[in-house]
Amino acid sequence: MSISLSALKILKSEFTKALRSKKWLEKLLIGDLYGFEQELHEWLLGFYDKICSAMIKQVSSSIKFEKIQREISEKRGLKKLSLRSVELQLRTGTKIRYDSLYAKQVPKGYEGCRHLSHIHWRVDQKSGLMYQSLSCLLSVICPSFMLSKSVLNYQGIHANFDRIRKLSLTMAHHCKENRTKIQIKDGETLAGKRVLIAIDGGRTRMRQYDEENQKGRSAKYTTPWQEPKLFVITTIDKNGKANKEELPIYDSCFGDDETFEILEQYLKELEIDKAKDVQFVADGALWIWNRVKPMLTSLGVKEDKILETLDYYHAMEHLYELFEYIEKDQKESISKKLKQALWQGDIKKIKRLVKKGIPGVDLEQFNPYKYFYKNRNRIDYQKLRKEKRPCGSGVIESGIRRIINMRFKCPSTFWYPENVERLILMRSIALSGRWETMLNNLTKIRA
């Protein structure tokens, strides 16, 4: 189907007039390049709207498209179709109207859209996916919804705060419902690769209302801190560095069990059982280490391919706590030797030095030492260096700072629990470079 002759003539006439515009040429002659580009950009956006409007109205009024809509109605059990005017928001934020078939009668329990053209084009909240994508992308990259609105407006795209927030949360909801599928490319696998998985907790403040109070401007609420658990799945090259040719996968959840359930689903999709080896890096939290090997072995990873690593920098923090108990006259010499012993991963030497520096200590009851003893199989940093593997969790620490702290830990910022998790997911996708993959997968899922 080609664009109608009348519509084509109108568009051609508009384009010809624009090229002959003297005011644009005059701006260049007087040195106003900024003004020239600004006006040209605004005109191009308007021209884009006219092209979209002409083509959408032409297609929506065609017999072929009516047949497509009726086929959709039969598949979904939508009945009593009538022609109605419907609104659609384009990539530029401009809203156009056209005629679409509307279902007056739907199956029991049906909660989807009733406009057949919107169903076919995967329109959500009367917005095309491109505008929704831009709104959501900027809302998670920018420090606030308000700033994302300003950026859109600066680009000549119509936007308002409430609309951006609503579209962003809607898109984030769809992504959360399909979180373990939308980030993965077709055919993507971890087979034959050196896999690095790291996990750590961030912090964000919730907005929780008392049961007696309803949400509103005058309602009182508390702002407790909660810990979203963020994990990353990535690969390392032969030198132990993050493989720049492959994009990492980040995701986050509040619950301990839920976090590992989501991580397990990702790893299953990525064929973790075929990986060359798997290194898991984290701090000393037992909720993590109690789940790592059972999860990986259940996915088919052999135990001799699993390497658990206690993050070296977390270990050093605990070592400094231990220094406080060493007698003053021996503190300097023994502290230095303890650092060397830890870097060598020598738990026996750490034990001897602790006994020497803290006479009469009961190691079985001494928590600062028990931390290292419990993690004795995870601190062989000397071997890690020889095998060119990471000794620390820098990859996840960086993720915590960029993904969570810089957007969701801002002063005087409080989040509804049901919103923050899905927005963290969207920011994870954006900052990992998987936004386009997410859009393509989401389009297929919602087809």
Structural descriptors:
single chain, 447 residues, alpha+beta, two-stranded antiparallel ribbon, 11 strands
Question: What would you say this structure looks like, in words?
Answer:
This protein has 447 residues and is an alpha+beta fold. The chain is built from 19 helices and eleven strands. The chain has helices at 5-19, 22-29, 33-60, 63-76, 116-121, 129-141, 145-154, 161-177, 179-182, 256-269, 286-298, 312-323, 328-344, 347-357, 367-374, 381-386, 394-408, 417-431, 435-445, and strands spanning 79-89, 95-105, 194-201, 204-205, 208-209, 221-222, 225-226, 229-236, 249-253, 277-282, 306-310. The strands form four sheets. A five-stranded mixed sheet has the order 9-8-3-10-11. Helix 13 (328-344) packs antiparallel against helix 14 (347-357) and helix 17 crosses helix 18. The mean pLDDT is 91.
Q: Could you give the distance between the termini?
A: 22 Å
* Stretches with pLDDT under 50, minimum 5 residues: none
Strand order, main sheet: write it out.
9-8-3-10-11
**Oligomerization category of the chains in this entry:** single chain
